[in-house]
Each structure stands twice: as structure tokens, then as C-alpha cells.
């Protein structure tokens, strides 16, 4: 097992592009880590090892497709209330299990982008709970201390990422299920704006509120996955000052260590240029209470109540889950309307207090409990964990859970940034800044943050650039492209109008390509694409006599690319006959 292998999305993509890593090696490492983890209660079902290895070999045989597959060879896990063709959907209830005919739309988009499904993960049954202990399949092992809860309901998905078993995972979120497990596992959890991602193929707990969520080691990685399933979204960067909301009297239920870490997080946000804006948390708290102490419980009854009513002892229905779901029958249609009116009033009050804030900065959870604590007090302590999360989907907001430190006993603490609907990318951009400013381990892994310039940004516009020398895949300067989130588009050649020269100097050795009127030849190039925001940064690092001009390709297309000023060719060695820089470099080996 290679415990040093970084499964971060950016890291794997860069290694694949450089040709230093095979997909089979990645899948073999994933399987080795799963075997070493043993019975960690993370998985409910998995794709057979033989199938995964065959998939990996197929990817390796078609490396030419890498440019078409932005998530080429990236392993991921799926919460088991989301459909994946070929694997059962159980929602952590054996008697409820069914075999879906097709994958959920989000899963299908990820697979079409090249990601590889490893398996389905454990959860609080029917996504009802924030603790991760309400499952007949066991309690996923918190990688920081197995005595403590992993958080729920997306428990297995969060543990799989934190433990380095997969690069990212999908969860779902009604009341905090995509955020609380992130906080307890020291990873990033993105809860998108409700409705932004397709819910087709997702078993909902509360259909009017639920959304899929994304777990990753870094905000930059989460942004890559988000883009694959949400498409281009609005960005909103604020490099200067910003306002962030903080509760006037935050509640931590006696956890002094979490309280101190939250105070420290506020100071760090101030150091980053932020101004705290205090607000009264009461309307947010009161809205949160409606989810489990109001008529919205009836929506859980509508989802799975009939099944639970008819289930026998062999179905595996969890007692607390049964109690919660069946309790929804006591609410009437009148209660539902009154609840809507009350929610609308609370939302207006909350908005008025915080409308000058770019985002709210809240504790992801006010404390963390031991598994034994939940056995003794299963409902109240679960409610405590949702103190800062339950209101978010009610208010149609987006949220990003971020690592923020550790208690003296080594357990993680996290904060969650909450913003108005549609500002998901703004949170992801700021999340990348936060992780650079507050350097912490990524999950329980030895992975590294993506390069500084790999910040998530919108990608409506990308610029293609032809490289001819040391910037090509696997060569010394290729990391200047991958570090700016460059993607290999094609292996190509120019029109027969150029000559190639080996320039003096180095290392690294560099070629210079000059366009000529006659006597030209076709030269091998690689065409990469860069986000438009990164193009200027890349060009600024190019030394004379090289520069960027318009290159004509063999098929008649034109792209931006490396050209050399003609004066430099007079003192350089003409290597046009080799047809390209790689062939010239190989001649030295011969």
C-alpha cells in the first residue's frame, strides 16, 4: 500500500496528465486502503474488485480520451439513498432495498466525466439524523476517535473521504447531513443552493428541502465536482474587505473547547480582511426548530411512512427512525399552512438582520458526542447537532463547511459559511482562500492542498494554448499548466509553416518555434486549455525570446501558442527534422 499517494482531485488529475500515474495503480491503492480499514462500517455495497480493475485497465488503454474526461480515473463514493445502476439502494434499511434501473442524474454526469464509482456508503436510516449511528449496518468509524460519532446522515460518505479511501463523495442534506459529517471528519462539505443540482434518482427525506451534497478534501476539489454537475455558475470574488455574520450569543452546550475554536476562527476571518457583524440568532434557531418540532416531520412520513407502517421485524427499521417518521401523522393540513406562515415571518426577520453580510460564519456543530452518549440520549443530542444547520434549506441558502481546528483531545472543529441562494461559487472561492490562510491537515490523510492558483472560479471561458517544448505532458514545466488547472485538449501538429530550434541555455532546455515563409514543416504540439483568468498569469512567466502568438494547426484551426523571435534562431540549433521536441530529446537517450 502506498499511503503517500494523494487522492485529491487536482493531484490525481495532474499526475494522470503528466503520465506519472496509471488508473490501475490508483484503483489498486483504493482497494488496498479499503482492505486495511477492515470492518469500518463505511460501505453498504461495493463494485466488485475485478470490475473496478477492469475499468481501470480500460481507462489506461484509452489515455487519449483524457482530454474528453475532466474527471478521468477519479474514484468516488455515493451515499446509499442515491441510485447507482448495478448497485442496490437501501437507504440503510435492508427490507427497503431495490435495484435501480439507472443511475441518478448527478451520478451519471460524474461517470460520463470519467469518475469511477467505488461503492455505496452507510447513512442514518432514511437520511433521518445528524449522528451517523442510526443504521443496522453499524456506525462508520470516526477516523479521529472511534468512540465519537462520525456525524450524519451522510456518515459513510464523509468517513470515506476523510480516511483517504476515495477522492470525493456524494451525500444528501436536509438539516445538515452534508455539513455536520464534514465538521466531524475535518473535510469540506458543500451544500448547494436547493434545486441547483438534479434530485432525480435521490430518495428524499423531505422532498421540498433536500439537496445532494459534495464531500472533498479541499474547497478547490469540491468546486471541480460542483462544476461537473451544476454547470457554469455565477462567481463573486471579494479580494478586499467583507462582512460576515456571527451570532450575538453563540451556543455550544457546554463545550468550552469548541467555543474557543470558534472565537479563534472569527479572529482569523478578521485577519483575512473581514468585519464581524453580530446578529440575534433567535429567528434562525426558531426556524430550525420547525424541522423536527413542526409539521415538516410529516414530509418524512409522506416519504417512507407507509413502508415503515407495514414493515416487519426482519425489515431492519431503526427504532428511533420509526419513532420520528411515524410522529408526523399528528400534524394536520392546518398545521402545515401555519408552519409556512411562521417560516416566512422568521425568514424575513433573519434577512433584515444580516442583509449587509456577504455570508454568515457559524460553527458547523456546537459540540460532538460519543456513540455511547447517543445510545443514552438519541433525540435531544441529535437535535443539538443541528442547532446551526437546520434553517439553511428552509431559507433556500447555500453553505460550505470548512475545517477550522482541533480540540485539545484531537477532535476536529469546523465552521460553516452560509450565503444567499446562487452564491455557491463565491463560497467555494472564499473556502480556498480560507484553507490557504488556515493550513490544516486534509481529513485524516497526508494529502496536500491544490496549488495556490488552483482556486475554483467560473469556467465559462477557457483559452486554448499550443505548447511545443518543456510544458508538454511529463516534461519539466508541465506543472505550470496543471497548477493553473490546465487541461490537455489534444495531441496535435502544426501546419507545415514552421521550423524548430533548440535554444541555448537551461536547464530546462527549451525549443523555439519560428514561422517561416518557405521551407517549413509540421511540428508536434500539445494543445492545452487554461481558464481565462489564469492565462495572463501563465504568459507573464514566459521569458524572452519566447512569446505567445497565433499558431496554425494542421487541420486549419488557429490557437494561441509558443513562438520564438526570429533573431534567436540565428544562434540556435535547427532541429526541425526531428518533427518535434520529444523526438529530439529522445535522440539523446539513443
Quickly list its features.
alpha+beta, Hypothetical upf0131 protein ytfp, single chain, five-stranded mixed β-sheet, 590 residues, Amidase signature (AS) enzymes
Task: Explain what the structure shows.
The chain has about 600 residues and is of the alpha+beta class. The chain has two domains: about 10-455, Alpha-Beta Complex (Amidase signature (AS) enzymes), CATH 3.90.1300; about 460-590, Gamma-glutamyl cyclotransferase-like (Hypothetical upf0131 protein ytfp, Roll). About 35% of the residues lie in helices and about 20% in strands. The protein has 20 helices and 19 strands. The protein has helices spanning about 10-20, 25-35, 50-60, 105-110, 155-160, 180-185, 220-230, 255-270, 280-290, 295-310, 320-325, 335-355, 370-375, 380-385, 390-395, 425-435, 480, 530-540, 565-570, 580-590; strands spanning about 45, 75-80, 115-120, 170-175, 190, 210-215, 240-245, 275-280, 360-365, 400-405, 410-420, 460-465, 485-495, 500, 510-515, 525-530, 545-550, 560-565, 575. The two termini are about 35 Å apart.
Topology:
Blueprint lengths: L8 H10 L4 H15 L5 E4 L2 H13 L13 E5 L25 H8 L3 E6 L33 H8 L5 E6 L6 H6 L2 E4 L19 E6 L2 H12 L11 E6 L8 H16 L2 E6 L2 H11 L4 H14 L8 H8 L6 H22 L4 E5 L7 H6 L3 H6 L5 H4 L3 E9 L5 E8 L4 H14 L24 E6 L11 H4 L4 E7 L4 E5 L8 E5 L8 E8 H9 L5 E7 L5 E7 L1 H4 L3 E2 L6 H9 L1
Parallel strand pairs: 2-3, 2-4, 7-8, 7-9, 12-18
Antiparallel strand pairs: 1-3, 4-6, 5-6, 5-10, 9-11, 10-11, 12-16, 13-16, 14-15, 14-19, 17-18
Helix pairs in contact: 2-3, 7-16, 9-12, 10-11
Amino acid at each position: 500500500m502506498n499511503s503517500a499517494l494523494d487522492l485529491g482531485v487536482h493531484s490525481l488529475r495532474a499526475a494522470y496528465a503528466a503520465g506519472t500515474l496509471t488508473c490501475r495503480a490508483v484503483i489498486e491503492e483504493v482497494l488496498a486502503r479499503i482492505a486495511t480499514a477492515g470492518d469500518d462500517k463505511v460501505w453498504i455495497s461495493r463494485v466488485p474488485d475485478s470490475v473496478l480493475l477492469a475499468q481501470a485497465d480500460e481507462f489506461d488503454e484509452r489515455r487519449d480520451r483524457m482530454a474528453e474526461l475532466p474527471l478521468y480515473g477519479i474514484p468516488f463514493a455515493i451515499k446509499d439513498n442515491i441510485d447507482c445502476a448495478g448497485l442496490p439502494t437501501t437507504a440503510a434499511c435492508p427490507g427497503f432495498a431495490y435495484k435501480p434501473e439507472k443511475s441518478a442524474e448527478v451520478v451519471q454526469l460524474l461517470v460520463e466525466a470519467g469518475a469511477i464509482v467505488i461503492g455505496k456508503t452507510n447513512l442514518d436510516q432514511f437520511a433521518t439524523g445528524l449522528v451517523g449511528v442510526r443504521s443496522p449496518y453499524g456506525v462508520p468509524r470516526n477516523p479521529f476517535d472511534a468512540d465519537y460519532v462520525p456525524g450524519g446522515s451522510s456518515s459513510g460518505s464523509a468517513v470515506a473521504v476523510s480516511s483517504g479511501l476515495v477522492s470525493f463523495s456524494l451525500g444528501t442534506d436536509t438539516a445538515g447531513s452534508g455539513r455536520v459529517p464534514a465538521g466531524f471528519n475535518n473535510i469540506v462539505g458543500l451544500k448547494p443552493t436547493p434545486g441547483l443540482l438534479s434530485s432525480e434518482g435521490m430518495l428524499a427525506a423531505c422532498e421540498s428541502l433536500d439537496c445532494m451534497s459534495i464531500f472533498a478534501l479541499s474547497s478547490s476539489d469540491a468546486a471541480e465536482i460542483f462544476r461537473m454537475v451544476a454547470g457554469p455558475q455565477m462567481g463573486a470574488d471579494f479580494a478586499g474587505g467583507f462582512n460576515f455574520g456571527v451570532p450575538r450569543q453563540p451556543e455550544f452546550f457546554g463545550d468550552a473547547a469548541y467555543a474557543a475554536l470558534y472565537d479563534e476562527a472569527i479572529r482569523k476571518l478578521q485577519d483575512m480582511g473581514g468585519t464581524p457583524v453580530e446578529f440575534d440568532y433567535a429567528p434562525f434557531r426558531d426556524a430550525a426548530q420547525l424541522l423536527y418540532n413542526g409539521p415538516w416531520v410529516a414530509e418524512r412520513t409522506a416519504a417512507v411512512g407507509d413502508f415503515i407502517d407495514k414493515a416487519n421485524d426482519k425489515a431492519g427499521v431503526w427504532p428511533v427512525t420509526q419513532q420520528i417518521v411515524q410522529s408526523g401523522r399528528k400534524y394536520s393540513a392546518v398545521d402545515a399552512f401555519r408552519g409556512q406562515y411562521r417560516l416566512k415571518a422568521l425568514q424575513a426577520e433573519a434577512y433584515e438582520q444580516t442583509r449587509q453580510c456577504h455570508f454568515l460564519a457559524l460553527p458547523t456543530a456546537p459540540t460532538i458526542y460519543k456513540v455511547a452518549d447517543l445510545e443514552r440520549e438519541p433525540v435531544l443530542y441529535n437535535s443539538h447537532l443541528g442547532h446551526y444547520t437546520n434553517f439553511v434549506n428552509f431559507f433556500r441558502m447555500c453553505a460550505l463547511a470548512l475545517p477550522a481546528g482541533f480540540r485539545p483531545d484531537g477532535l476536529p472543529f469546523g465552521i460553516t459559511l452560509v450565503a444567499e441562494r446562487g452564491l455557491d461559487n463565491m463560497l467555494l472561492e472564499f473556502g480556498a482562500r480560507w484553507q490557504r490562510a488556515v493550513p490544516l491537515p486534509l481529513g485524516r490523510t497526508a494529502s496536500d492542498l491544490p496549488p495556490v492558483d488552483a482556486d475554483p472560479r467560473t469556467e465559462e471561458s477557457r483559452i486554448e494554448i499550443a505548447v511545443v517544448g518543456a510544458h508538454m505532458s511529463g516534461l519539466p514545466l508541465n506543472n505550470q499548466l496543471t497548477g493553473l488547472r490546465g487541461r490537455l485538449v489534444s495531441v496535435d501538429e502544426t501546419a507545415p509553416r514552421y521550423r524548430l530550434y533548440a535554444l541555448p541555455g537551461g536547464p530546462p532546455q527549451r525549443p523555439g518555434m519560428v514561422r517561416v515563409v518557405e521551407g517549413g514543416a509540421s511540428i508536434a504540439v500539445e494543445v492545452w486549455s487554461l481558464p481565462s483568468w489564469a492565462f495572463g498569469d501563465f504568459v507573464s512567466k514566459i521569458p524572452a525570446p519566447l512569446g505567445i502568438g497565433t499558431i496554425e494547426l494542421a487541420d486549419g484551426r488557429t490557437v494561441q501558442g509558443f513562438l520564438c523571435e526570429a533573431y534567436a534562431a540565428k544562434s540556435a540549433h535547427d532541429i526541425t527534422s526531428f518533427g518535434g521536441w520529444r523526438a529530439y530529446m529522445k535522440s539523446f537517450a539513443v
